[in-house]
Structures are given as C-alpha cells and as structure tokens.
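User: Second chain of the day. Same drill as before.
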Amino acid sequence: MVGISGSGNVHKCEVAIIGGGPAGSTTAALLMKYRPDSKVLVLEKEKFPRDHVGESQLPSISAIIDEMGCWDEIENAGFPLKIGATYRWGKNPELWNFDFAPPSEVEKLARPTPYEGLRRQTAFQVDRAIYDEILLDHAEKLGAEIRQETQVTEVLRDGDRVEGLRLSDGSTVVADYYIDATGHVGTLRRAMGVETKPETKLQNVAFWDYWENADWAIEVGSGGTRVQVMSQAAGWIWFIPLGPTRTSIGYVVPSDHYKKLGSSVEDCYHDAIKNDDRISALIKNATPRGMVEATKDWSFTSSRGHGENWFLVGESIGFADPILAAGMTLAHTGARELAHTLAELLASKENEEADWLKDSLSQSQLRRVRQHIRFADFWYASNGQFTDLQEHCAEIARESGIKMSPEAAWRWLAQGGFTNENTSTPALGTCDLPSLKQVLWKLTDKKGDWELNHKNVLKLNLRNAERKMMPVYEDGVIKREDCWVRGQNRLPMTGIFKVVVDILEQESRIDRIHKMIVDYYGGPTQKKSHLSPIKVAVQAMEAMINEGWVIAKIDKKSAKMAINRPEENDFIHMNRDEDPAASKTMD
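Assistant: Same format as last time:
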C-alpha cells in the first residue's frame, strides 16, 4: 500500500478519487498499473460490500477487466455469463433474442475460462456487492490507498481550481488532480457549478428489488444465460440473474405515468411483475428481499467534463437510460481513458498538450453518452408507450439541418454514431450495422435496408470538416492519430476507416472499390465471418453514408452491390423452444 504523505490533518497525494465504484476503482487500478509510483487515494463514503443497481454488462468491459489484471478474480467469482438478451419489444409481441455469441459454442466452455477466444464475445451479469468490492480491493493491491466510510463534506475551491477536500473526520486532502466518480450524486460536479441538461424527453423512474431462487429463463453451458427485457403497456421489466440463486428484477416506467397511478412504489413494482406472465412464471418459487428501491433514471450530460485540475468520470459526467445496459461500459471505458490521461499529465508537470489531453477526454466521454442516449430514444420510440419520441427525433434531425418525417428521423438517428465510438471499426455498444438493421426489422416489421444496395457511386465528403488530432489509448500510452471532425461527428483516420478513406480518394465506383478492398486484405480467401475485414469495410462505408462522410449516388450503367438481408441469423433471432419459461407461461 502506498502511504499518503502529509502532516497533521492535511494529507497530500497526486490523485484524489471521490467514489469507489467501477469508475473510481478502474481509474485507480489502471493508473497504478501504468504508473506504479503514483500516490492515489480513493475516498468511498460507504462500507463495501454494498448492493448497487446496474448489474448487466456488455462484452467490451471484459477487455478492460483483463487489462486491469483482475480477470481471474472476476471469473472465479462465478458470475453468470451473459450471452445476450431476450426481448419482448417493438411492434411484434413475440419474443426475440440478441446473442453476443452462439449458444452452441458457449455450451462447450468449461469455466473458469481465460480471457481468450469466445470469452471475448461474452459479458458478465454481476452482483455489484461482490463485483465492486473485487475491483476496489484490486486497486488497493496495486498500490492505491483506499479509505472506506469516508465522506467528502466540502470541496475547497478557488475559481475553477480545486484546492482540497474536507472530509467527515475533519481532515483535509490536497492533491494535484481530483476525480469525481460519485455517479448521479456528482459531489465535485455540483461543487464546481457544472450544469447538466437532459438531452432527451425521456423521464423515467426505476423500481427494483432482489429475489432468491428465481428460475432462469434459459441456462447455457456452465452458467451462461440471457437477461430478460419485457415491455409492458406502460414501461418495461428487467430480469437479471446475478448468481445461482440471486436475481435482480426492476421496473422502468415514465414518471408521469407513475404519478397518475397514485400508488406506492411497492404496489407499482409488484403489480407490474404480477401482470407479466413470463416474469411471474420465473419467480413462481422465488422470494423477494422485501425492500423495493427507487431512483429516477433521467438521461443527462454535463456541460463540461473537466476543469483546471479536476475531472468527471462515469455517471457524474453523464447517464444514458439503462435499456441498452450501457452504464457500466461507459463508466469503465471513461475511467480507462482517464487513467491514461492522468499517467501522461503526471509524467510531465509542464505538459504542453495538457489542454488537448483534457479536452479530448471530456469530448470522448460526452460523445459516447450522447450517442447512447440517442440510441435509447430510438429504442423507446419503437414501443407503443413512447411513440411521441419520434417527433423528438425529428427535432434532433432539424437541429442537424435535415428535414425528415418523425419516423424517418427516428430510423436515421438509430444508424448514426457508428464512427464515433470505436477508433478502428464501426460499432455502437454491442451493435454493428448488420445487427442494427436486423433490430430495426424486429422493432418495426420493416427491413433495415442497406444504402449500398441502391447506390453505386461513392464520393468522400469532407466539406466543412476540420482535420484534427485524436487520442488512441493503448497499454498506458496515448497515441496521436488524425481524424476529421464535423459537428458532433468524428471520422477516425485509423483502422478500417483509414483504409476506406484512402480507397475513396482514388476510386468512386463501388465494384472497383470492393475489388481494391479485397486486394488490400489479401483476396477472397480470407476468413468468411461477420468480423472479416471485407465485411467490416462494407459496414464502414455504410456508416460513413449515414453520417454524411460519403455522398452516395446511383449510376444505372454500373454494377451494384447485393448485400444479403436475412431476418435472422445466429446472433439475432426469434426465441426458440429451448427456453423453459415459454412453456411455463402456458400452464
């Protein structure tokens, strides 16, 4: 353990982190990994272990857990593998599945399993009381000082600079940098007068409790399962197995609807569950903890993510509705980038690029949160209770200078942002573009067509775009790469995007573009999977069309592409008979 130097009631360190949840512990652990001599202090007001909502993860978190060096600890905790989700959502009342990995392959896994192969495609469903404690303990093992049951009672400031933190025991912490990882509470954010805005018309409330001995809807191999996301007339229910016997069940509903009901939190929660045949079947022999908790889960972003010597990370900088299970992914990813940024700032007190490092970090976090909020709006707008959101989507389109009908704007909104999140491939959370187009089909009963099936002349469009430098965070080092920026959209000049841009600067006809891509990646003999470079390049071109980086036209004399549009595949398909809950609901 690294001691915090100081005298009397003043304690000095390099980095003081307020909050010991995943954002705070990930920041501390990765900073200690890449800069072991750092003096890092984590201040946590509660005593771990403690329950916390937000248990369902996405696969990208696993890579960060592995980078932190605590994969084995998390895997050995025996959390259920999340192979995907079962939905009742959209125009069709039938159940459908979104799988991260083929269940037939997951069946073959013998756990505990190292982070390799198929495990790069799966995620965890975690009991936060256990998970958060593992992460915080791991940060301490790497050298961070952890103080639990220690609350920050006052933030001492001078303008936009934090001068210290007054603690509940009367002592003061003085640091070079201060981190707010306190989630919605926003201890430092509020103290520094940072404003927030909703970014959406969604104003939901969430109620939840934990249940013992609920049945799993499906068990795949060694502890693999799907979460259940069940829409109702007024909202939706989550069902997340956290272990062999413990399950998190929550109900999300518009706050206005809840107010009109005039019922208690407990009655609203239990009535919603009782009225859902599927969930009722799964808890037939289960017992609730008996303490229903509630929170508002209104999506928001902060007006900024940093100041002179402080940063916001995780839900303190912004929150996206939980429908897409993105909360923990945003927290871990932002914390990872913050740790890289702090390592570079601490390495040089006179860093000439300090402002660029800080701005890049804040913009990256806010860009991701906004895109997930937009995607959540799209998702909700496909549910009967939330159709007024389609007009909201049209307003967003008009703000971007595009006139569209509400439904067209909603579909357009869903397909944007695929160049913003990953610096090398088109993606949004767990979705790639083919998956999204299949989701569109499930939600609307309309085929998610490809522009590339109808346009065969592509012209790179960099009008009003500015060439800038962007950070790429790798192994404790921040690499500088080029990108194009226009408004809130960013086009990285890395990975598949750079390959496509280089080719589009030479050729405009799709048949010749396709041949150049095939030749670049070594011909058609390369692996034929949804992750093959050629297929990812096609996705990149489609994403660039959707976001205006490419202007696409039709030349009737030239060849066109023919991209297959299956309604189902191994990853997105109607729920099948292997689900025991299906038969239970008919008893």
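The two ends are 58 Å apart (CA to CA).

User: Great, on to the next one.
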